[in-house]
Amino acid sequence: MNAHPSARELAQYIDHTLLTPEATSAEVRILAEQARSLGTWSICVSPAMLPLRDVELGPVHLAVVCGFPSGKHTPSIKAAEAAESVALGADEIDMVINIGLLKEGDADALTAEIAAVRAAAPSPTLLKVIIESAVLTDEEIVTACRCAEQADADFVKTSTGFHKAGGASVHAVELMAATVGGRLGVKASGGIRDYATACAMIDAGATRLGVSATAAILAGAPQN
């Protein structure tokens, strides 16, 4: 990525996101229209919005969250939710880990949880693992990334964007990128609302961005 990516270049990093509880099918249709117009990589929606009806995605991928936003679901429920979403058209699954397992130091249980979702949504479905980095120590961030890699996930992701502790930070993205070493992607999500912040996350190592303020972010980018 160059220092000042164009709107077209930056759009391909973006999961154009609508995850509010009050979201409607009409709003998802608008989301898809915006994604096609702006050229984003995907849209990201809640599983209850599936199957998408009267929605034309074209080249835009479909990402769906799992265990969202708390992560306090059993592994079997998360696996079932992921499997159903894939059956209903999802190309990518963004799962929230059970952060309590990480806080308790139970890396084996955390790895098993991620592996259960991976088994339910096998490749070529992309699996992104949301670790809620703002509530973690650096050591916990590293452990979460290692568990995700061990469970054969494709990405680690900073945040749901719904936690009171906050969303993505440059430090967390740098640490996550250093830990996975290019073997997994890194998705920065939560609090990215302008072009400068988006660029900072990419410079830190993010290979995907989860944002809802997509139009405003891309408006700040060079338009060539």
UniProtKB/TrEMBL annotation:
Listed SUPFAM superfamilies: Aldolase
Molecular function terms from GO: deoxyribose-phosphate aldolase activity
CDD domains: DeoC (cd00959)
InterPro entries according to UniProt: Aldolase_TIM (IPR013785), DeoC (IPR011343), DeoC/FbaB/LacD_aldolase (IPR002915), DeoC_typeI (IPR028581)
Reaction catalysis annotation: 2-deoxy-D-ribose 5-phosphate = D-glyceraldehyde 3-phosphate + acetaldehyde
GO CC term, one of those recorded: cytoplasm
Pathway(s) served: Carbohydrate degradation; 2-deoxy-D-ribose 1-phosphate degradation; D-glyceraldehyde 3-phosphate and acetaldehyde from 2-deoxy-alpha-D-ribose 1-phosphate: step 2/2
Domain of life: Bacteria
Active site: D94 (proton donor/acceptor), K157 (schiff-base intermediate with acetaldehyde), K187 (proton donor/acceptor)
Family (UniProt): Belongs to the DeoC/FbaB aldolase family. DeoC type 1 subfamily.
Function: Catalyzes a reversible aldol reaction between acetaldehyde and D-glyceraldehyde 3-phosphate to generate 2-deoxy-D-ribose 5-phosphate.
Protein name: Deoxyribose-phosphate aldolase
Species this chain originates from: Acidipropionibacterium jensenii
Gene from which this protein is expressed: deoC
